[in-house]
Every structure is written in structure tokens, then in C-alpha cells.
Amino acid sequence: MLSCIRALCNADIEVGFKIGKDVSLPETYIRSVENPVKNIGGNPPSERPILAFFAGGLHGYVRPVLLKHWENKEPDMKITGPLPHVRGNANYLNLMKSSKYCICARGHEVNSPRVVEAIFHECIPVIISDNFIPPLFEVLNWESFAVFVMEKDIPNLRNILLSISDERYIEMHKRVKKVQEHFIWHAEPVKYDLFHMLLHSIWYNRIFQIGHT
């Protein structure tokens, strides 16, 4: 078992995830098996008036801190608990598509489906989850299309996002659109989709192990 490569959604180095050995799996919602690219996309940068968006349950220790500092504090920070169930899903997706940055704060575990949802809707993921190893990090430069904020820096979240220049944001938006294909499951695998990318991660880590034995 010591040489086994584990594929884990909870890719947390504090609870045993081994960089160079284990593979980080993305958490995804498959909304349409027949058409996996249905509803993917979002508004262009000029039509995203919301600076940052988060809506969700308050499980874990990070999300209550996020709401304590940012719920109803700034008009361009849409930070709230769960949306009402009536048409809540449509509102949630529309808010993602209208936001520059989507907050992906850890819950009970380090990973969240919001990371992939944000990518699908061209909303820059803002990952607040210390010790989280993002999926496909072996080949994707996450810092080119996502923002990583330390949990201790939540009180300064808005200033961190406002410090990102318009030019930098536009470039990140372009890159997040480019990486979408790598996070899509297809009924029949398609070149460079998530199935192939995960196989590549497993192969990469196996080669890494061989080189260090």
C-alpha cells in the first residue's frame, strides 16, 4: 500500500496527501450527462459588476469567518449563506456568471465543487483553503487563472482582490476559459478532458516515484 497512488478529492497535505505520489481529484457536479458543456460560460469581463461572490452553507471553520467579515459589508461583495431553494440554483449560476471572482472557501474539507463551477462560468476562483493541493497542478499553472488567499487574510480579502489590475484580471479571465476543457467529463472521453488529464497526473506521479526510488 505504501507505493499505491491515491486519487483524492480531499487533497489535504495536513491529513496525509503526498505531493509527488497522490493525485488531487476535482469535485464536480455533472448537470447534464447528455450535454456536459450545457450552460458552461458566463458574461464577458465588462458585464461582471460584482467583485466577489459566495453563497453556501456555513459548515467548517472558514466560512463563518468569511461571512462575519463580508456579509452585507460592501455592495460589490455578494457574500451570503445558502440562497433560497426557490429558483436558488438559477440565481446562484447567474451570480457566478456576473461576478469577477468566486470565493471557494473550504467547508469540512479542503476541496469544494465551487472551484470547478467557477471555472465553468469564467469566474476567477478565489481559493481560501490552506493546505489544499489543486487538481492537475502537475501541468496547470493555477496562479495564472486563480487567486489563493490564506485563511488568516480573510479580513483583507476585498483589498487583495482590488489590488489585482484590470489587465491582470483580463488575462486571468482568458486563461480560465482555456482550462475549462480540462475539467469536463464526457460519456466518451475526449482528448484533453478530465479523464485524460487525470490519467496524465497518475502517469506523471508514477514516473516521479520511479525517479526517486
From TrEMBL:
Pfam families the UniProt entry points to: Exostosin_GT47
InterPro entries associated with the record: Exostosin (IPR004263), Exostosin_GT47 (IPR040911)
Membrane topology term: Single-pass type II membrane protein
Keyword Disulfide bond: no
Gene Ontology annotations for the cellular component aspect, listed alphabetically: Golgi membrane
Cell compartment(s), UniProt: Golgi apparatus membrane
Keywords: Glycosyltransferase, Golgi apparatus, Signal-anchor, Transferase, Transmembrane
Keyword Glycosyltransferase annotated: yes
Superkingdom: Eukaryota
GO MF, one example: glycosyltransferase activity
Domain Exostosin GT47: residue ranges: 8-162
Family: Belongs to the glycosyltransferase 47 family.
Protein name: Putative xylogalacturonan beta-1,3-xylosyltransferase
Organism: Lupinus albus
